[in-house]
Amino acid sequence: MSKGFFQVPVAVNEPVKSYAPGSPEREEVLKQYRKYYKSKTEVPLYIGEHEVSVGDTKPISPPHDHKHIIGHYYLAEAEQIDAAIETALQARPAWAALTWEQRAAIFLKAAELLAGPYRAKINAATMIGQSKTVHQAEIDSACELIDFLRFNVEFMSQIYSEQPDSSEGIWNRVEYRSLEGFVYAITPFNFTAIAGNLPSSAAMMGNVVLWKPSSTQMFSAKVIMDVFKEAGVPPGVINMVAGNSAMISEKALTHPDFAGIHFTGSTEVFNSLWKQIGDNIGTYKTYPRIVGETGGKDFIIAHPTANARQVATAITRGAFEFQGQKCSAASRIYLPESKAEKTLEYLKADLASIKPPGTPEDMSNFVSSVIDQKSFDKLAGYIDRAKKDKKAEVIAGGGYNKSKGYFIEPTVILTTDPNYVTMETELFGPVVTVYVYKDKDWSEALKLVDTTSEYALTGAVFSGDRYAIDEATKVLENCAGNFYINDKPTGAVVGQQPFGGARGSGTNDKAGSAQNLMRWVSPRLIKETFVSPEDYRYPFLG
Ligand code: NAD
């Protein structure tokens, strides 16, 4: 029981450091990068108080230098998953009963550790393991993760302070219990911040967690666990495992104490997990929470009044930063005939000024490698197809090479078919497809944007005409969970632009918001009557 109504520190967004030549942060991150590069890091399983490093392993290599090995991660056997779940459940009573300000303090401390002593480590690990430039690593693994932790603490305190009215002689109160069981967090490769947020947001609300990071994010996942441990997350509260995804999910999703899934990744995987949960629904002690943020086919549509220079900049940044591997990355572009030539000219000039993809250690690189061979082969296949198809033309980039790293040039495909395969399919790489519409068909083009894809994650409209902006906002109401006006569709900031989409893009529970945290509690209403009645007869009975 707390002995005060505590106010948490007001959350503010972590300032983004510049890493300009000569800055101390640049020197520090490069030093850490080189240290990691030369050494071998072992990533154990984290089960309760044990860091398990026995059994089979898999190597970890930087995607931009895939023959170089920087460490190994351990693979869990089925019985270790059982042990991780049992350990979590044993940790649950004490963790769920801990006063909320103690939980808040742990995660605020984690934020401070990331902002200070762990900043270079988490950024260098993300640069090496996921091939992010230093700027992309900074805005993700340092700033966004710090923001998630700080803002979630603030949202948690807001949730707890939300209480019902009471009437005369009665006191109504709500307590926000953690879920009765464990939460299964599954995270994608592309954001270190999401990897840290999915397990910690549920844990912050008093839950215990089984966390399975992506096999291609294990290097920075270890830094996250190191931070959680140093911040004081007790053993068993967040258990990190790796290995065969199907086996781990089979164990987690057939367990009677499975209480919720916190997923970010592809729509296909989420659909299969949801189905599995449905098949096992009779097994669970409680209805599980199902939260999933999934794929996208994010758009930019320019009106004839749009500024071509601004549209081109939004495409260059929105489609190609982090090699187009953001769920929010622009990947289908609709340009009006009257502005297309100018916009594409600017875009091609931008791309011509970008160095060929290379290592993030060389800070003059704007783009690096895609995440793995599977992704590389898939993207190269779509590029080859576009080179051959009559309906498509590769107007910029189109080169690729995987001899050292999985490098794909930023590529622009121009199509005459608004339903061309790369206008509809999530490619998740540095490939953007452009369709040019006739200026007079603006309203039809909006309908096309709305109906072309199964997804509804992010999208942007560029226009200087307020009526056109209003029309786009209305027609595209259900087409994006995050809708941008005269801005690129990427770069959502915690506490400012809560993130998530609907349709095939997920359950839209908005990561980094109170709404998301509400999914990890089960409120209990307590009504207390001070003087209880002693006669059952109501006055109307006479
Ligand atoms: P992915 O679906 O391949 O993998 C996501 C996670 O699911 C990984 O940890 C993976 O190992 C795991 N997984 C795969 N099969 C599984 C199974 N049967 N059981 C349990 N886990 C399983 O996605 P990815 O390639 O890591 O990430 C890219 C995808 O994530 C894209 O589709 C992107 O749009 C999406 N994404 C969405 C958001 C969002 O907020 N909407 C954010 C980031 C990424």
Question: Topology of this structure?
Answer:
Blueprint lengths: L23 H15 L2 E3 L1 E3 L2 E3 L4 E4 L10 E4 L3 H20 L2 H16 L3 H12 L3 H28 L8 E9 L3 E5 L5 H13 L3 E5 L5 H14 L6 E3 L4 H9 L4 E7 L2 H13 L9 E5 L4 E5 L5 H13 L9 E7 H17 L19 H16 L3 E5 L3 E2 L5 E2 L2 E5 L5 H4 L6 E7 L4 H11 L2 E2 L1 E5 L3 H10 L6 E4 L16 E2 L10 H5 L2 E9 L13
Parallel strand pairs: 1-5, 7-8, 7-10, 8-9, 10-11, 12-13, 12-20, 13-18, 17-18, 20-21
Antiparallel strand pairs: 2-3, 4-5, 6-23, 14-17, 15-16, 19-22
Helix pairs in contact: 1-4, 2-8, 3-5, 3-7, 4-5, 4-7, 5-6, 10-11
The structure holds nicotinamide-adenine-dinucleotide.
The site of nicotinamide-adenine-dinucleotide (NAD) has 33 residues, from helix 8 and helix 9.
> How many strand elements?
23
Radius of gyration based on Cα positions = 25 Å
Integer tally of domains: 2
**Name of the CATH superfamily of the largest domain:** Aldehyde Dehydrogenase, Chain A, domain 1
CATH class of the largest domain: Alpha Beta
What is the third-level CATH name, the topology of the largest domain? Aldehyde Dehydrogenase, Chain A, domain 1
CATH-derived architecture of the largest domain: 3-Layer(aba) Sandwich
Query: What gross morphology would you assign?
Result: globular
Main sheet, how many strands, which sense, barrel?
Answer: 7 strands, mixed
Low-confidence stretches: none
- Helix and strand content put the structural class at alpha/beta
Distance N to C terminus: 46 Å
